[in-house]
Amino acid sequence: MRRFNAIFRKELHAYFTSPTSYAAFAVYMLISSLMFYLNFVMFQPSIIDFRLVSGNATFMFIFIIPLLTMRLLADEFRQGTDELLLTSPARLSEIVLGKYAAALLLMVLLVGLNFIYPIVMSFFGPIDMTVVLTSLLGMLLLTAAMAAIGLFASALSQHQMIAAMTGVVLLLIFWLLDWAAQAAESLGTWLMPLAMSARLDSFSKGILSGADIVFFITLTVVFIVLSIQVLERKRWR
Q: Could you report the per-residue pLDDT of 107-121, keeping only the tens digit for each?
């Protein structure tokens, strides 16, 4: 646990001293605020519905989160510090979980920023807080899974931009699986359960579905385990 805490604090310090983190947050807030203004304040202030915001926000995560996770392991490979890390007394699971925990805390902050919008909406009329809270929970589970996928992408390359692009491609694949399922009916029953966007529907309607919660948790665990396996192969190479 002591080594996990050390890695967690190191990664957290790196996040809060990195201009990339602030730039990613700034871009996210700029675009999401603009979409909020266009979709709600300017055109539909009579419809008090958090889904007018959450749909755009979740799609932007596909591009923002890989920028936040690209350096987690790729930077270690680039600087050559991976050999020190992999030969240290710390277990691979402690290394990966420490880095992931720091990214997860950043996801909590990213999702928490979205609470600004229902607060603003509440000045225009009553808002369904059940929908707001379940939507935010869905966004949190989604970003946790996306961060695990981004971590896995970061384990595949020593180049941060390649890691970011790999993360975006993987996230787009999981995001667009519902479209693929509709286009290829024969594969629909296999692809649809894996589609991230389809799994968010129940949360956005104010419904907590155990199957959807388990899906996001399972996806997170799978990609964390895959990241550990990639490091395991690098250790013995």
A: 999 999 998 888 888
